Structure formats: structure tokens, C-alpha cells
Amino acid sequence: MIVTSKKTNEEILAALGDAKTAFIAGCGSCAYKCSNSDEKSVLAVKDFLEQNGITVLGAANIDSACDMRLVKRDLLRNENFKNADAVLVLSCGAGVQSIESASQKVVIPALNSSYIGTTEKIGVYKKFCSACGTCVLGLTGGICPKTRCAKSLVNGPCGGFVNGKCETDQNKDCAWVLIYEKLKKTGKLQQFLTFYCEPKK
Ligand code: SF4
Ligand code: SF4
Predict the structure, then answer these.
(1) How close is the Cα of 179 to the center of ligand 1, in Å?
(2) Where are the chain's structural domains?
(3) DSSP letter, residue 154
């Protein structure tokens, strides 16, 4: 899932500029699971906009804002959407751009896209992928060195770990210790010794 966080009201207001009317478009997938586009979030942002003189013409939640087919199906025929000066989007950056691309409307992100992560429990997410484009999980025991090593080292540890913990944060496991242990447990330690990965950007 794409983990998001809310922008401040002040940031949203500044981005809306001189818009007099707005439509709020939420995403029913990742942003919703992060409690950033649920009913409470939509109502909170709606109240804030109206308190600041912006009329909210309507709101809609799309099952997945990043799916342009759903954007076209659920938004493009909505008169309130069409008439709004700007669309405030509660989704990741892909959702914002999907709505822009399908409608050519002025779109304003209400959220920041932080990372691709897993949900441990509601409100607790772990950054597990940086979408580098050349996945090496098949060689690293299913543990991402680019994302889970504090220095993004992709060819082995820095050597600073203590008792399996990262030298930059004693509360975090060293990713390379995890990789080593996993490969050892699954009989693939040879992989650890021969592994080479081109530096990732
Ligand atoms: S190597 Fe890591 S950052 Fe790259 S695609 Fe795989 S999980 Fe994502
Ligand atoms: S201690 Fe481990 S996780 Fe931390 S920076 Fe070094 S190799 Fe990366």
C-alpha cells in the first residue's frame, strides 16, 4: 500500500489559491486504509474549506483513485465535479494525477505520499519498498536492502550493527543481518556471498 500523511490545512489553503469552489475526491484504497480519506477526514477538510470561504460543491470516494477507469466512471459525469474551480484529492500522487489526466481539472493534493509499506496494525505502517524498478527480493530473502537498510546499502552491511540492530537506530533491526539470517535459514547462504547488485538510485 502507498502510505500517506495529511498536509496541513494551511498548505491546502495556499495551494487552492483563489479557487472559490471545490470538489473533494477521496480514494477508497490505500489512503482510506491510512485513515486519510475516510468520512471523518473528508468532513474535517470540508468544514475547514467552508470556514475559509470556499464552497464545497460535493465529495465522492473513488474505489481506487489511481485507476483512471474508475475516475472516469465515478467523476466525469458528476456536475458538481465539473463545475468546481478545483478538486481537492485525498489520495497518493498517482491518484491525484489520474484525476488530472482524466479530467484536466485543477487538482490539489491533500496528502503527501510517503512510501510503499505494510500495515502492521491501523496507524502503524512499515516502509518496505522504494519502488526502485529493479527488485532484488528474490536474492535477498524477501527483505529489501534499498529500503530497510538505513544507508540503502545493496551489497552487504556497513559493519556497524550491534547485536543485530542498526547502528543508526538501536530499535531497528539491521536489514543485512535479517537478510543473512533468512538466507542461512533457507539454505541459500551462498547467495549472500555471491550477491552483487548495481547501485540503486
Ligand atoms: S528492491 Fe526494494 S525498493 Fe526495489 S522494488 Fe524490490 S522491494 Fe522495492
Ligand atoms: S547497521 Fe545494517 S541497516 Fe544499519 S546502516 Fe549498517 S547495514 Fe544498514
Answers:
(1) 14
(2) 2-115, 132-194
(3) S
SS3 190: helix
> Does the CB atom of residue 118 touch ligand 1 within 6 A?
no
47-91 pLDDT tens trace: 999 999 999 999 999 999 999 999 999 999 999 999 999 999 999
Vertex 96: Cα angle to 93 and 100 (nearest 5): 135
Could you tell me the sign of the dihedral formed by the alpha carbons of 77, 80, 83, 88, in that order? negative
Pair 164, 171: CB distance under 8 Å: no
**Closest residue CA from atom 6 of ligand 1:** 135
Alpha carbon distance 192, 179 (integer Å): 8
Closest-CA residue, ligand 1 atom 8, reads 129
Pairing between β-strand 107-109 and β-strand 124-129 as defined by DSSP bridges: unpaired
CATH topology for the 2-115 domain: Rossmann fold (3.40.50)
Strands (E), 48-197: 55-62, 86-90, 107-109, 111-121, 124-129, 165-166, 169-173
Q: Are 28 and 63 spatial neighbours (Cβ–Cβ below 8 Å)?
A: yes
CB atoms < 10 A from the CB of 23, how many?
24
The amino acid that residue 119 corresponds to is T
Q: What is the pTM of this model?
A: 0.86
Residue 99's CB is within 10 A of a number of other CB atoms, namely: 27
* Nearest Cα to Cα of residue 188 among 196, 178, 180: 180
